[in-house]
Amino acid sequence: MIKPGTSFKFVNVSKRGEKEYWVTSQSKVLYTSVVETNITADSVLLPEEIPPEGELSVFAVSLIIYDLKSYRNIIVVFWVSPLKYRQNGALAVKALLLKDQEKTAKVCLFGRNAETPYSKGETVKITAVYPKKYMDTLQLTTSPASTCEFIHDEPSIHINDDDGEDFNTDVDFVEDQDDTPIPIILTDFADIDIYQCCSNEACRQKKMIENECPVCHRRESDQKSCRMNFLYTAKDKTDQKIVLFKTTLELILKTDLNLNEPKQNIIDKIIEFLPISTRACISKRNTLYNVQ
């Protein structure tokens, strides 16, 4: 919400005149710390002040719909990621590339399922998986109810050299280069998405979909979480986008966010903390871990 007295940072805008800049689909509009000004120049008309003969443009947003429900039981392992730990070392994470008679799929494992050793060519059965789009990547994710069972070999499934081509650049299959936290400054705040999440601790604040948890299928929850976009500066990087969830920001700020307050009040509270300094590691997917 844009209101008088709030400071904003505009990134990648297009200059169209001496006092005119256009915000395009490639631009970023972010909340930033308060800036005192003494501007007296005539301002450009606000949208509500444009005369009736002004032109209005409408832009459509396309949604990608996907369906991976056929991958309920997936069979032969042909690529195993390194075992990694997230949530400050509390959560084991591993990814597998699996193949059935026709297709391949990436499955993410957590906890004990991730700590189990797997090898190429082994035949496994994984239950209770669900489709998920994470950082623009389509994959399957296991849940606390998931099981990973080694079963008899399946000779009808053949592994080809080109089966994993689509995943050659997937960072989950690359060793983390450095887990040493570095100084990071969250300089600007972009937006926040507040949503109802599952109150079951094992579901790790999973977002409710149509009033149902996609992991445990619980239908009642009064708990909320949020996803926020910031710009950060670190080492030789500036104005880089990063995604933070409620638990990570609370860890950095050492305070709790009350998501039952009006959204604008929450935004105002976050702005008061800007710029936010911390030490953490930055993953290949531009999220923070090992926060100090």
What does this structure look like?
By secondary structure, the chain is mainly β. It folds into two domains: 76-173, Nucleic acid-binding proteins (OB fold (Dihydrolipoamide Acetyltransferase, E2P), Beta Barrel), CATH 2.40.50.140; 182-289, no CATH class. It has three helices and 17 strands. The strands form five sheets. Strands 5, 6, 7, 8, 10 and 11 form a six-stranded mixed sheet that branches. It has a five-stranded antiparallel sheet with strand order 15-14-13-16-17. The longest helix is centred in the last third of the chain and has 11 residues, at 263-273.
List the helices and strands and how they pair.
Elements lengths: L7 E4 L2 E2 L5 E2 L5 E4 L44 E5 L3 E3 L4 E9 L4 E7 L1 H4 L8 E3 L2 E6 L2 E6 L5 E3 L31 E16 L25 E12 L2 E9 H8 L9 H11 L2 E7 L5 E2 L3
Parallel strand pairs: 8-11
Antiparallel strand pairs: 1-4, 2-3, 5-7, 6-7, 7-8, 9-12, 10-11, 13-14, 13-16, 14-15, 16-17
Number of helices, where a helix is a run of at least 4 consecutive DSSP H or I residues: 3
Count of DSSP E strands?
17
Helix % is: under 10%
Order of helices and strands: EEEEEEEEHEEEEEEEHHEE
Please summarize the sheet with the most strands: 6 strands, mixed
User: What average pLDDT do the residues reach?
Assistant: 76
> Can you tell me the number of structural domains?
2
What structural class do the secondary elements suggest? Answer: mainly beta
What is the overall silhouette? globular
Give the uncertain stretches in residue-range form: 40-45, 50-72
The span between the termini is 32 Å
Strand content: 25-35%
**Spatial extent as radius of gyration:** 23 Å
